[in-house]
Write a structure and sequence with these properties.
Helices cover 44% and strands 8% of the residues. The chain is mostly helical. It folds into 3 domains: 73 residues, Endolytic murein transglycosylase (Dna Ligase, domain 1, 2-Layer Sandwich); 80 residues, no CATH class; 139 residues, no CATH class. The chain is elongated, with a radius of gyration of 34 Å. The N and C termini lie far apart (128 Å).
Length: 363
């Protein structure tokens, strides 16, 4: 009888000890389960296509901010989140426990980057913004106008076909994706502007308007002047006058241009972009044109102005007659802007061809 009582007491003690151990293990498990990460500041992690939580968690533990790779993997299995990874870069907040980290990786938005293509730049000048963009996969080598034309299926010069705007991308996105987005955005903007065009314009197709918009974009950075300048050029075309605009000549010169237009440049009939010698629009756009320039080209201001000259402060003086224009040139010439082009043509004066020519008329 005494033996039975003693055995029962032992069983009770063992049960109490077992319960205590189970409780202790449970407490420890809960404590470990919710142990926070060691990072005091946000940690940027990168998840590539094909990465696994097993490999990443080991790396994070080796980096010193994740307490236990094993625990995170166990938690992910129990929660069914071991396949919830999404590619991209993430800024992990400090002090997350395993569950919070898994939930963050499953729901957080990846880090994004921005690159801007600027109005008025040529394609060659704009492409470095794509080529030098951080974390953008450079899948077009070399990234130049010829490669852009090949990518987009454009025959000839692709100048003007990328829309100047700010583009958002993620780490690992491709340069070709940005180029296609810019091309498609320009097509949409051009078609929308074309649909709202005025009557009586000297354009046979939307591409003609794109060419005009690029010239307007290069001529002025003053938004309010763009429709006026477009009006000048549209009237000149409708009157069978040459455009006689410096930016087209400069574009045709390419690397030869050293900052000064010379008489020989304006007399060169071999330059297809020389609108002092060639009638009509140049063969292609000469820069990236924004929506304001597109709208100006397709909705130019009414008026009788046929000439304009730079005032020297970024704005222009507009004239209806050559006599009035020449007076304006003489008035503003000494204050002209020191830019890569001038907005009124030089005079047909004699002199040393090595020196830049003075502006007198736009015809």
């Amino acid at each position: 009888m005494a033996a039975r009582i003693s055995g029962a007491v032992c069983v009770k003690k063992l049960l109490r000890l077992g319960a205590g151990l189970i409780f202790l293990v449970a407490v420890l498990a809960i404590a470990v389960w919710f142990v926070p990460a060691n990072n005091q500041d946000p940690v940027r992690v990168t998840i590539h296509q094909g990465d696994t939580l097993s490999g990443l968690s080991r790396q994070w533990q080796a980096d010193g901010w994740l307490p236990s790779s094993l625990l995170l993997r166990v938690q992910s299995r129990l929660l069914g989140m071991d396949h919830a990874l999404r590619t991209g870069e993430y800024d992990v907040p400090p002090g997350l426990n395993g569950m919070e980290l898994l939930q963050f990786l499953a729901s957080a938005q990846p880090v994004t980057y921005r690159l801007s293509l600027i109005e008025g730049l040529t394609l060659s000048e704009a492409l470095p913004a794509i080529a030098q963009a951080p974390q953008l996969q450079q899948d077009i080598e070399p990234l130049n106008p010829a490669a852009v034309a090949s990518l987009l299926g454009i025959e000839g010069n692709p100048e003007g076909w990328l829309y100047p705007d700010t583009y958002v991308y993620r780490s690992g996105d491709k340069a070709s994706t940005i180029v296609r987005q810019a091309y498609e955005r320009m097509q949409r903007q051009l078609q929308a502007a074309w649909a709202g065009r005025s009557e009586g314009l000297p354009y046979d197709k939307p591409y003609d308007a794109l060419i005009m918009a690029s010239i307007v974009e290069k001529e002025t950075g003053v938004v309010s002047e763009r429709p006026i300048i477009a009006g000048v050029f549209v009237r000149r075309l409708n009157m069978n006058m040459r455009l006689e605009t410096d930016p087209t000549v400069i574009y045709g010169l390419g690397p030869e241009f050293d900052g000064n237009l010379r008489k020989r440049h304006l007399q060169d009939r071999t330059n297809p972009y020389n609108t002092y010698r060639q009638k009509g629009l140049p063969p292609t756009p000469i820069a990236l044109a924004g929506r304001a320039a597109l709208d100006a080209a397709l909705n130019p201001s009414d008026g009788d102005q046929l000439f304009f000259v730079a005032r020297g402060d970024g704005s222009h003086y507009f004239s209806a007659t050559l006599e009035e224009h020449n007076k304006a040139v003489r008035k503003y010439q000494i204050f002209r802007r020191k830019e890569d082009y001038r907005s009124a043509p030089p005079a047909e004066s004699s002199g040393d061809d090595s020196e830049p020519k003075q502006q007198e008329s736009s015809q």
